[in-house]
Amino acid sequence: MTKKTIQLFVKLIVVAVILFVFSFVVVMPQYGGNYQASMVDKISRLQSIEGPKIVLLGNSNLAFGMNSERLSQLTGMPVVNMGLHGGVGNAFNESVAKLNVCEGDIYIIVHDNWSDNDTIKNPELAWITMENHPQLLRLIRWKDIPSLAKAFPTYLRKCVHMWGTQTGNAEQTNAYRRSAFNEYGDNIYPRPQTEGEIELEKVTINPVSDEAANRVKKLQAYLEARGATLYVAGYPICVSDKTPTEAEYDAFEADLKQKLGHTDAHPIVISHYNDYRYDLSYFYDSYLHLTDAGIILRTDQLYQDITNVQPQMAGSR
User: Which of 7-21, 63-77, 225-239 has the lowest mean pLDDT?
Assistant: First the structure.
């Protein structure tokens, strides 16, 4: 290696270090008031609880559809609602399950779509979620690095713009902000009734992909080896003339059970999906987001599903 080559190599390292410091120390974070930033608080709660807890994994059907304090009172266990945004993908939302596993933990996956290909769906949104928080960067898998690296320049450019114009870390005034979440991880922005038009055509059933099923089975084995339990539960289904039939949901449930290795002796799917069919009036601004009244219905149904496989919790009221 020549002297010039060594000098060039050193210069590249210096530039890389400067860029790293500028990006991760000076500029970030710029989305501190964003809806996605609530993941920082959710993980803080998750890691603060030592001993058995219930951890809910999934997208906004949980963030906008669970009363975790009520579920905690009913089950007698601490609850952490990790549900946030489907845009990052199922794999990313499941990855938090490995951050603080304690013996006796119960992890419940609630996906509305099982047809994923085991990738980060929107890498830029993943950066917005993680920013420069070390505890969130642990959610990255080796296989995710190429897509995240590709999305980083776009994310950084937006951060630099907000940093330069001093417009970063702002909050909106609606439900889509960090401060709309409570200490359990639930979005508690008041939702007394339906607002806007619900996209009913999006209420569909998608096939269960082998990639998704295999990933969840591996996660189940990981958790069981550490004394924890993994279940899969139902999500809110908005009923209209566009909604698939009960028979179609029964067929989906049977296929999911088969692909996940569910048996009566070793249950994993604890819900009958048709138990989560709710009238349109129980949905807020999306076919997955519930009103205040819908949240109570859904929380109580999940509690019933849990007690069917954990009967000792039925007396925890």
Answer: 7-21
